Amino acid sequence: MALTKTKVGVITFLDTRNNYGQVLQAFALQYILKQWGYDAFVIDYEKIKGKNKCKKFILSLIEYLGFSKVYWSFRDRNLWQKDTKRKFDDFKKKYISCTEKKYRTLYQLQKNPPDAQYYITGSDQVWAQLISDQDNRAYFLDFGNDDIQRISYAPSFVMSEYPSELLSQLGCLLKRFDHISVRENCGIEICNVVGCMGVKKVADPTLLLTGDVYKRLFLRKKIISSYIFIYCLNIVDKEEMEWSAINAYAKNKHLNIIVTPSSGVYPAKELFEGVSYSYCTVEGWISNITYSSLVVTTSFHGIVFSLLLNRNFVYVPLKNAFKRANDRVYELLEILDLKDKIVTNSKTFNRAVLAKIDWCIVNEKLEKYRETSLSFLKESLNK
Hints:
- The chain is an alpha/beta fold.
- The longest helix is centred in the C-terminal third of the chain and has 22 residues, at 359-380.
- It is built from 15 helices and 11 strands.
- The two termini are 22 Å apart.
- It is globular.
- It is 39% helix and 12% strand.
- The strands form 2 sheets. A 6-stranded parallel beta sheet has the order 2-1-3-4-5-6. Strands 9-8-7-10-11 form a 5-stranded parallel beta sheet, with helices on both faces.
- α8 (185-193) links the parallel β5 (179-182) and β6.
């Protein structure tokens, strides 16, 4: 008789139509868990968006009636049409297992929680969702009975200090966890403030797999000559990406430029002229990075996959209201001794491009970081 597999339910962000890192971090964690023999699945939780009850009610009604795709496609028809080319839904159906039941509120999760022996929250910025909104407590695993083992794997607070008026509630939620890890040092400090000690810093789930795994699963044939690949996220002006310097460098080196814009705080827009826009699939995105001569990005996961696929890169820090997200990139590049690849006030784009990378050393450091992170996950699952 076949043994019943241990069930592991993961709650994370997975509702994106165009953020490649968000989809790949969910894929990577589930891939590892399944490789270890667990029946792993993502808990299909997507809050109803809206800041007031009236708007939430209208949006929930639209979804209940099955018109959500129609609504969003008409709301921003141009972006929707481009996003359909990325085929994220196809990728999720093929590579990521989810609960059949769709949860939209914390109450629904508490009333009928997913059946599992372990719950994992993370990765991504799930703990940046303030618990002043009741439904955000779902990301702190405030559902299911006390017998279920609760683990956080690499969630990010994306803030250096948690609101003081919410610290008491945060402490109560975190004390239900059996094992806690976070992605940044500031996350450890926040946990310590509310009395949770011994919190581990671990790698983003995408770093748990080697570049060879991603290439084996997703790499497609090269279809263009030498090029710079720009992956831009959370910018509203082309000069936030050092566009003048990129354009001049490309002309000097006779390189084409491919751009993939994605939505974050700000919606994806075509900001650059004289380039080829690629609304690629996840597989196409991996391929665009793999075959590029240079990757220029404002994205954490853009940097992660440049590292995993051993491609020269330049990180352009965000300069707008979302610049607090830079810390996770700074910390990762500091671990790898690659801070020279960051554009700063004193370090120009051209200097960052020319900064050398010893891939043997980088890969060795990545492997050590991977091993300690996998060890945390194994120990948390009593494996």
